[in-house]
Design goal:
468 residues, alpha/beta, Metallo-beta-lactamase, Chain A, Rossmann fold, 2 domains, 7-stranded mixed sheet, 14 helices, globular
């Protein structure tokens, strides 16, 4: 029995782990690598294994860096089921269809541009996968309830625990039997934070033989959510006073809904002036409707608001923008206005159009509320680039850059240590510190050794580990 790291080894994106026994070969996640265009293209198009040999996939949650290569896997020969929670399955269908449409549009734009002037955000003249591929893969989704053990082929038992990251997100708990020996393998997926709005807190296990643990923010701490909201409030008040734009690149699933929830609180309590807030993302609009349908994932605070008559995902001034023509009009409007658009790392989507028009305006605020992977436009902007290229044209960065990582749905150093401490009674034989930068992964290995007094490694892509 062995574990093979195919993605998110000393990098944040592209989660993909293979478990092989004599009876079965399956994957946990099949995520998209996001980074430098050339490297991104090479990594996403091929696999280091034969896709037809994979019997099934277990999906932790519906973010592209965990599910974005599923259509590529199926096109290459994978025909098995994909196990996920009900909310994850519904969000995954939406997300993959949206990505396919974007891929087709970007590829068409790339073919229409002379090669030397191609943008950093439009690289391939052919889509990674198309709408037909996305439609095909959703037929392979199978739903599993939280906290219910499910028997899978190859003497594997699965249980999903709530990860508290986004709607439907899961800690993947598996028991794998071979030659009479059972190995308890746990993958945290993306582990959330305590006391975040809308969804329940993480349900971390108290035992595991082997643990795959995400490391995204293992080397830093977030501001508390209350501190984050206080700063958010000040930014809105200032923007209103100066009649300026606030551009928010946000992930359509999870981060956008948390932002809406926070704005609802500020507006309902009259803590900020009412300004137009445009959710400029068809994907985010549809994802928000899915959030509203899956109330079984809500925490007690959100249920309290609903029972009191409040609609936590709505407020005065909120508008949803579907059509591209309406989106184009937003950037030309006079402020104050807040525009929330994808993608979260500024590597595509409608946010690029707004940045193209307003990044050179000193009276514009770019509010960054999520992780920016190396190689992305967002990473360059956050790290002080004075000039960037958007749609093939050079643009000077004159807008004010504000970072509010307290909106992050990833546990920070202190929260990870708190979760890990629940394993002190039954520490793992080995902890794999994955889904983080080299520095973050190495920080987590030190934390594990200090907290649990057990071995920990920061594996690289391609490494194999014997489990039994």
């Amino acid at each position: 029995m062995e574990l093979i790291i195919h993605g998110a080894g000393q990098t944040v994106t592209g989660s993909l782990y293979q478990i092989k026994t004599k009876a079965v070969s399956f994957l946990i996640d099949c995520g998209l690598f996001q980074g430098k265009p050339a490297e991104q293209s090479n990594r996403n198009q091929t696999f280091a294994f034969e896709p037809s040999s994979i019997e099934y996939v277990i999906l932790s949650h519906a973010h592209l860096d965990h599910c974005g290569r599923l259509p590529v896997l199926a096109r290459a020969g994978f025909r098995g089921p994909i196990y996920a929670t009900s909310a994850t399955a519904e969000l995954c269908k939406l997300l993959l269809r949206d990505m396919a449409e974007t891929e087709e549009e970007d590829a068409a734009r790339a073919r229409s541009q002379p090669s030397p002037s191609r943008s950093n955000h439009v690289f391939d003249a052919e889509p990674l996968f198309n709408v037909s591929d996305a439609k095909r893969i959703v037929k392979q989704l199978r739903t599993v309830k939280y906290n219910v053990k499910e028997s899978l082929p190859g003497n594997v038992t699965l249980r999903f625990r709530d990860a508290g990251h986004i709607l439907g997100s899961s800690i993947v708990e598996t028991w794998i039997e071979e030659r009479g020996k059972v190995v308890h393998l746990v993958d945290t997926g993306d582990i959330g934070r305590e006391n975040l709005p809308i969804i329940r807190d993480p349900d971390f296990p108290s035992a595991a033989n082997f643990l795959l643990c995400e490391s995204t923010y293992a080397n830093r701490t977030h501001k508390s959510f209350s501190q984050t909201i206080a700063r958010f409030e000040r930014i809105i008040i200032k923007a209103n006073r100066h009649r300026s734009h606030i551009l928010v690149p946000a992930f359509a699933i999870g981060r956008t809904q948390s932002l809406i929830y926070a704005l609802n609180t500020l507006v309902e309590n009259a803590q900020v002036p009412i300004i137009p807030v445009a959710i400029d993302s068809p994907l985010a609009i549809r994802a928000t409707e899915i959030f509203k349908r899956h109330r079984e994932c809500f925490d007690s605070e959100t249920w309290g608001l609903i029972k009191s008559g409040d609609a936590p995902l709505d407020f005065k001034g909120l508008q949803y923008v579907e059509r591209q023509t309406d989106s184009d009009y937003l950037s030309q409007k006079r402020g104050p206005i807040m525009i929330v658009a994808g993608s979260g790392m500024m590597n595509g989507g409608r946010i690029l159009r707004h940045l193209y028009r307003r990044i050179e305006d000193k009276n514009t605020n770019i509010l960054v509320i999520g992780f920016q992977a190396p190689g992305t436009l967002g990473h360059r902007i956050v790290n002080g680039a004075r000039q960037v290229r958007i749609y093939g044209r050079k643009k000077r960065v004159r807008a004010r850059i504000e970072s509010l990582y307290g909106f992050s749905a990833h546990a920070d150093r202190n929260e990870l240590q708190n979760y890990l401490s629940s394993l002190r009674g039954h520490p793992p034989q080995l902890v794999f510190c994955i889904h983080g930068s080299p520095r973050a992964c190495n920080s987590l290995t030190k934390m594990v050794k200090r907290t649990l007094r057990c071995p920990a490694v920061a594996p690289r892509i391609g490494q194999r580990f014997k489990l039994a």
